[in-house]
Amino acid sequence: MDVLSDAGHDAVYLPCGASAAMIFAPCKDGNSHNEIESARGSSGSGLQRAVAGDAERRAEGREGQRMKILIARMNHETNTFSPVATPLAAFGRNGPSFGEDAFNDNKGMQTAMAAFIDAAEREHAEIVTPVSASANPSGPVEAAAYDAICNAIVAAAAGCDAVMLDLHGAMVAENSSDGEGDLLERVRALLPDAPIAVALDLHGNVTQKMIDNADVIVSFKTYPHVDMYETGAHAARLMFELIHGNAKPVIAWRQPPLLTHTLRSATAEGAMKRAVDAARAAEANGTLAVSVLPGFSLADIDAPCISVVVVGNGERAEAEAVAERIARQIWDEREDFVYRSAPLAESVAQAALLARGADKPVLLLDHGDNCMSGGTCDTMDLLEEALKQKLEGIVSGPLCDPQAVAALMAAGVGSTVTVTIGNKLASDVLTPRPPMAVTGVVRALTDGEYVISGPTYTGQRAFMGRTAVLDTGTVKLVITEHTHEPWDLGVFESVGIDPRRARFLLLKSRMYCRPVFVPIAAALVECDSRGVTSSDYGLFAFKHVKRPVYPLDRQTKWTSTN
């Protein structure tokens, strides 16, 4: 979970040189702070301060001048079918962090922004960090929130020599179907000659505006994502090579009309692995960067399709040839990017068989209601089916139900209570069903905080919101105020549950749980329940996706055009 603190400051943070002397100065645009506070719905401190330090230190940048570099983070994977709203407050514990807090929330972490900071410090540059904003996947970003984040970045860009942006690539806002492209277009208009480097999530949806307004684009090469820092370092290295005249980046892009399934984008197997292997081979042969982005198909936009983005070194024809070759390889293997799930009852029955004689838990991954694809995390289909088939020794969660948490908090630890849980959010995909009535003992009540120790977002503090454990005897339910990906065992250990002792672990997850939960499990079963992250694209009424597109239109043909 991306953990960002609340600052509400109309300022930028400038750690200067190797000693990281700092200047905390107001944004150029006096309106940005008011927009941020208006989007938040509360007033902030309007903090302005100067931090004493080595203010006289001057590093050498372009043309003998000290470089001033803007570094910011704006991450959101938007599921346009999700009923879960995305206000400004969703972008951190209490919203985005600004200025000094944005710097501190990333420095020493494993984010792409952290790598940007480290690279800029090595160049002894002034570092401007106007904002760091990252939210769990959910529905479209509220217009006020999108404007507040973008305006903070644009307001800080004036006078900067270069820009490095840690973006997701699949953000859709109420007022922008191309969240990252529109931001980059604004930054480019303000800084027409400044190098702009971008790090993207592997599931970013690349657009023409993104290609037109960036000099360097590099995406993750792993899913689950464990190379975020390395991706930022790669993008930063290419940008500084450009600045110092050691490289001439040119970008080539291909986008076959293919909607991939997330479960077929794991980089350790299948066609996706072969595509990433080809990308790495091209880089080893001298291409500056090759990114394969399977995209995020549950964003109902023009082309949420797979992309190949190549950064060549001055030779456009070579870059185009690499992009064409890998894109053609992907298209020839397009069927391997399509996931076909089994009926839920069959998956649960398979889990029951796998548990026989096992001395470790069996994982049941509820990818139809997957947190990190914008799931509501409140559908109860998988748990209902598990109980119907009389599975026992179940640990399930995190289930998001603020109303149930409030009731359990009021009851207190040790109380026996009956509450209704889940099935409380409706959407075009989710046929309304009644919540599940559950009776059990309240075993734990916490603030829902823990530190992530797994390989994704290592060291960051996670906030699940207030969290309760309800024990029915057959199942222990971890119920939270916020949707939360089970990044590691801390999801359960922080509330007094040892997941290793469970017989069945039911997780609202598709992929990110695997690096830490697979090693403690006897087996893994993928379960496609109904939900806004289902792998059955037939459930979704796509209105904006350009047709024909595979696999919605099985006869789709693709002839590449430059």
Structure summarized in a few sentences:
The protein has 562 residues and is α/β, with parallel strands linked by helices.
Alpha-beta classification: alpha/beta
- Count of domain modules: 2
Q: Percentage of helical residues?
A: 25-40%
Uncertain spans:
1-62
CATH architecture of the largest domain: 3-Layer(aba) Sandwich
- The level-1 CATH class of the largest domain: Alpha Beta
- Full CATH superfamily name of the largest domain: Response regulator
Write down the Rg. Answer: 24 Å
Biggest sheet: strands side by side, in what order? 15-16-19-20-14-21-13-22
Summed up, the helix count is 14
The total beta strand count reads 22
**Shape designation:** globular
Approximate strand percentage? 15-25%
Largest sheet: 8 strands, mixed
Distance between the termini: 38 Å
User: How would you state the average pLDDT, rounded?
Assistant: 89
CATH topology value of the largest domain:
Rossmann fold
Q: Which descriptors apply to this entry?
A:
alpha/beta; 8-stranded mixed β-sheet; Rossmann fold; 14 helices; disordered N terminus; 22 strands; 26% helix; 562 residues; 7-stranded mixed β-sheet
